[in-house]
Amino acid sequence: MDFVPSARDLNRLLSCCNEPTYSPKKLADALENSFCNLCILNEKNNNLVGFVRATSDHGLNANLWNLVAEPGEFQAQLIAVLVHRVLHLLRRDMPGCSISIAASSIAIQSLKANGFVIDPAGIRAMAFKLR
C-alpha cells in the first residue's frame, strides 16, 4: 500500500527541519507528479519522521527532493535509510540514470557513502523561485 503523507504532516516535518513549507495544493501536485515518495513513520504514534521524494523523466535523469528527517538522536540514520532505499528504487527501475539532489548538510555523509559526488567537476546547483 502506498502511503502519501498529509500536507499538514509533511509541512510539520519540513518546518522542524528548517526547510521551506508549501501550500497543500503545491504539495499535492508535487506528490502526484513524483516518481515515488518514501516516508518513515514512528511506530508508537504514527508521526511522519522521515521523507524524500524523487522526480524523473523516466529515462536519463532523476532528482531527489525534500530529503528530511526529524531532528534528534536518530536523524542521520533516518537520512541514511531514506537515501539508500530511494537509490535502490531508482537504480532498479532506471539503471544508469543521473541522480541529483540539493540537500542540507546533515545529509552529506549519507549521500557521499552512497556514491554521490559533491559538485562534480565544479558544477554547482542553482535554484530560482518563481512566484
Chain-wise SSE layout:
Blueprint lengths: L6 H10 L7 H9 L3 E6 L6 E9 L4 E9 L5 H19 L4 E4 L6 H6 L18
Parallel strand pairs: 3-4
Antiparallel strand pairs: 1-2, 2-3
Verbal overview:
With 131 residues, this protein is an alpha+beta fold. It has one domain: Aminopeptidase. It contains 4 helices and 4 strands; from the N terminus they run ααβββαβα. It has a 4-stranded mixed sheet. A hairpin with a 4-residue loop joins strand 2 (48-56) and strand 3 (61-69).
Extract low-pLDDT stretches: none
Helix content: 25-40%
Broad CATH class: Alpha Beta
Strand content: 15-25%
Q: What's the total number of strands? A: 4
Count of DSSP H/I helices: 4
The quaternary organization reads as single chain
CA gyration radius, whole angstroms: 14 Å
Summarize the model shown.
The chain has helices at residues 7-16, 24-32, 75-93, 108-113; strands spanning 36-41, 48-56, 61-69, 98-101.
What distinguishing features does this structure have?
131 residues; alpha+beta; Aminopeptidase; four-stranded mixed beta sheet; 4 helices; 4 strands; 21% strand; globular
